[in-house]
Amino acid sequence: MSLIVAVILAIVEGLTEFIPVSSTGHMILTAKLLGYDDQSPVMKTYEIVIQLGAILAIAWVYRERILNLLGLNKKVTVVSKSKYLPNRRLDLIHVILGIMPALLVGFFFRDFIKGLFSSHTVLWALVVGGVFMIFAEWFSKNKANVTAEDIDQLSYKQALLIGLYQCISVLWPGFSRSGSTIAGGMLSGASYKASADFSFLIAVPIMCAVSGYEMLDSFRYLTSGTIGYFLIGFVIAFIVAYIVVLAFLKLIQKIQLRHFAYYRFILAALFWIFIMR
């Protein structure tokens, strides 16, 4: 792996991991664009390493919330304009309900899912996922459908539904984990902001579990000849993902879900016209 390839892939991972455009899809398409073997063991190990860098970034952004969930931080925070409530209102049961469906599907269908990784699969997932996101935003515009304005108001049922929607992205590479969870949250009665917060929060345990499991098979590729590239990619992915998440949360009311859907349509069309044909 060349240094330029390592840097480009780390930037792509950091940019796309937590916004609803599919980091997996972008990694596959970027590798194809660069003419790189995206199925090589070293490449797969590198993807795991830079994904861990992105995970660390989101864990740092939500560090107080995570500490609260673990019972290690008793601070209170403002969850609405007029009330102070403990962060523990969202508890570990919400998180478990949000991650268990996808973990079970990923575990039992791991080999089947790996066989679906292809450029054509990703392009279709980008389009269908974009339509799904637009529908979710349309549904959420009716305020009567919104029962959870912030993450602390999510019910267990909503957490489970979000977890079930997340399974779509597990079974269909390119659909986008954050896209399926944010859109699924909005269809379940959560606001855009609450859905995004919960999507980012449950990304930490589920991605740690998946990446950790995959690393058991790939650890031997962390050699003296590759560790330098991996370390550079890890740091770059962390920095870029951290900046992207902070910007997304700050601009969440300005950048609607449909804007990401439009980007997905354009990307799929461009790749189909200029690369795939």
Mind explaining what this structure looks like?
- This protein is an all-alpha fold and 277 residues long.
- The protein has one domain (3-276).
- The protein is 71% helix and 2% strand.
- It has twelve helices and two strands.
- It has helices at 3-16, 23-34, 41-61, 63-69, 92-108, 110-114, 119-140, 156-171, 177-187, 192-218, 227-250, 257-276, and strands at residues 76-78, 84-86.
- The chain has a two-stranded antiparallel sheet.
- Strand 1 and strand 2 form a beta hairpin.
- The chain is globular.
- 44% of the residues are buried.
- Mean pLDDT is 84; it is low at 78-88.
- Continuous helix count: 12
The end-to-end distance, rounded to whole angstroms, is 27 Å
* Total count of domains: 1
Query: What's the quaternary structure here?
Result: single chain
Helix content: over 70%
Shape: globular
Radius of gyration from CA coordinates? 18 Å
Which stretches of 5+ consecutive residues score pLDDT under 50?
Answer: 78-88
Q: Describe the main β-sheet briefly.
A: 2 strands, antiparallel
- Tell me the β content: under 5%
The ordered string of helix (H) and strand (E) elements is HHHHEEHHHHHHHH
Strand arrangement in the largest pleated sheet: 1-2
Q: Give average pLDDT, whole number.
A: 84
EC number: 3.6.1.27
GO molecular function: undecaprenyl-diphosphatase activity
Keywords: Antibiotic resistance, Cell membrane, Cell shape, Cell wall biogenesis/degradation, Hydrolase, Membrane, Peptidoglycan synthesis, Transmembrane, Transmembrane helix
Subcellular location: Cell membrane
